Amino acid sequence: MNMTHYMELLAANQPWNLLLFMAVPVILAETLAITELAVLFGGDTTPRPVRAANRWSGILAGGYFAVVFVTLMLTAAIPLTLGGGWRGPIDVVAVGFYLFGIVPLGGVALLDLGLIGRGRSERQRMKLHVAFVALFLVTAHVAMIAGMLDPTLIGGDAAAAVQDMHGMHGTAQ
Description:
Helices cover 76% and strands 0% of the residues. The protein is mostly helical.
């Protein structure tokens, strides 16, 4: 079976790529999502440690993913684009949606750091925070689902994908 670059990245260099590119961002995002629910439903009665976990998981997730984004843009997305190495539309969707995660996670971090949304009410900032968290969950799941597909299903080149995979041997391309 042919793999998308997204899935190949996670499968290469075990267990490190899986931990760095999937486990850490997902653990931070899930912590953010769970504490977000507690803050929403608890309101002013939400315990301080839960509020702190929400804020810090958002800041850490945004900062961490910014490093992941820059790393993958420089080592994978730009070289693949310039070299014509994409394995088809599914491959582009998987990697593209994964990288798009910087928008909502970066937004959460900037909001939690007080760099955006200053002129908004607490309720408006909370709505924006929830929207960013929801957007990240959607984009991450689209990336995961597309990443698990065979990239040759809609327009990908099977021969190139197989040759590409045999030449990779654990690189993050």
